[in-house]
């Protein structure tokens, strides 16, 4: 973690610059829900694209899909979510505050849903009041499909995208005529009615997941598990995360979800301590077996080499986009002294930066407007860009530094004579003069190498 980043500074920057807003803020907000603003949606899309490129496009063994959020409710019976996707909840009889019992004892990590913890704390940590007995609370959001609100029409907002992949395993296998190992990747919304959402966008009630279910022959699962742990860890480093802030941890046996044979977490050093960015689990054949049992369908794979029908094992790298968003911001945040002033800078990887190029006329002087507009028209065909002519050029550089824009292009009075512009680089603040005719090539060299 950058020692200069705090959650408070981050929340303030995110609001001020249009990265993240509290959801429905004008009505007082709603806990655990956040909105992504004009720059936030760019960064979020860039994270998703970088992931998709690495795990689908650049590989020859993973395909994509996009399943519906609302599924047949039997899915959640088969997956175990209806029975075990619950946290123990206690209420303070005095101040009415609600807590997760397992967090009060400090026993379980944030991700260990489905474990009943023995609540030993009997007093409210806020006011010292008496607490109720723990009650198990299912984290799935419930809704109704169709006009009648009865038991037969109950449905759930998915608490994970994974099940949409398991139920399509046979469809994808048939449609693509692939052999194992085969991965199916998906990015999409998931919902968890967390008892205590918090730490900004770290634990939301509505969030985006990026998940891969990688189906392998039993017996090769441990080797593929190691492969994915390395792949995923290296992805964070390739996108510029500082090595000392990222680590891989193998979960202890008592931390494992009920279906998992083994799980690793990629963790990040957040201001609140080491926390999970991504879980990489060996889910064995649990899910396919359960769905075969509950659906009555054949979800086996015919292995042509051995002539055997097998139930594949599954390695699941599962990351939360919002969490990654927060981690990338914290990691990139820096403050430095420049000529007696503090420069706030997001040292975001160029692939993640919301704006790649800012086009800045030196001043609002009339003569500079046509060439500056012309340059902007050229640039925005290629990259997400921004035109800014308000206030001094120094202030505008700072504004771009603060949101991580890697390159600024400045149009000045010399441009009128020499048809050239200045490219200014974010981290080094170095400036180089290039002809407008060669601008796209010069920017491409800096942005796409
Ligand atoms: Zn209390």
Ordered list of secondary-structure elements with their pairings:
Elements: H1 7-16, E1 20-22, E2 34-36, H2 38-57, E3 62-64, H3 74-79, H4 81-84, E4 86-91, E5 98-100, H5 101-104, E6 135-138, E7 142-144, E8 154-156, H6 162-166, H7 169-176, E9 182-191, E10 206-216, H8 221-238, E11 246-250, E12 262-270, E13 273-284, H9 286-295, E14 301-303, E15 308-310, E16 313-320, H10 321-332, E17 333-338, E18 341-346, E19 357-361, H11 369-379, E20 385-387, H12 393-402, E21 407-411, H13 415-418, E22 420-425, E23 431-435, H14 439-447
The chain binds zinc ion.
Zinc ion binds next to loops.
Runs with pLDDT <50, length 5+?
A: 107-119
Shape by Cα distribution: globular
Helix segment count?
14
Hetero compounds: zinc ion
**Number of beta-strand segments:** 23
Cα-to-Cα separation, first versus last residue: 26 Å
- The proportion of residues forming helix, as a percent range, comes to 25-40%
Helix/sheet category = alpha+beta
What's the overall average pLDDT, rounded? 93
From the alpha-carbon coordinates, what is the Rg to the nearest angstrom?
25 Å
Determine the strand fraction and express it as a percent band.
Answer: 25-35%
The major beta sheet can be summarized as:
7 strands, mixed
Strand order of the largest sheet: 3-9-10-16-13-12-11
